[in-house]
Write a structure and sequence with these properties.
extended; 85% helix; mainly alpha; 117 residues
Length: 117
């Protein structure tokens, strides 16, 4: 478990360092997740090593939303002043995520159909 957590947190730290150092407009954990994907692609044997720890983290994922909920409550004044912009961003980002999911599904379906022929 210690190795798995070290790997995951190291990738997140590296992502933070990269985004802050390069001034990228992407959250550090997103870059860290891409780094973790790259590491697991290069070394697939690590997947089995981190799977049990990741399963525990995912099973308790709801606990990670508690700090976010506290942050929302602590910033209710900002939310009440900017609610129109927040709603617009939520709607647009949701639609874009759904369109990206559909495009990915269709692309995967085409690839699988070509392989089946």
């Amino acid at each position: 478990m210690l190795f798995a957590l070290s790997l995951i947190l190291s990738c997140q730290l590296a992502g933070e360092l990269i985004t802050r150092g390069a001034g990228l407009p992407v959250p550090g954990p997103v870059v860290g997740l891409a780094l973790l994907l790259a590491v697991l692609t290069v070394r697939p044997s690590l997947i089995a090593a981190i799977r049990p720890t990741v399963a525990v983290i995912l099973a308790n994922l709801s606990l990670f939303f508690v700090p976010a909920g506290v942050g929302v409550v602590a910033n209710l004044e900002i939310l009440s002043n900017e609610w129109i912009a927040i709603i617009a961003v939520l709607v647009v980002s949701t639609v874009l995520a759904m369109l990206a999911s559909v495009a990915t599904f269709l692309a995967a379906l085409r690839i699988l159909e070509r392989e089946a022929e």
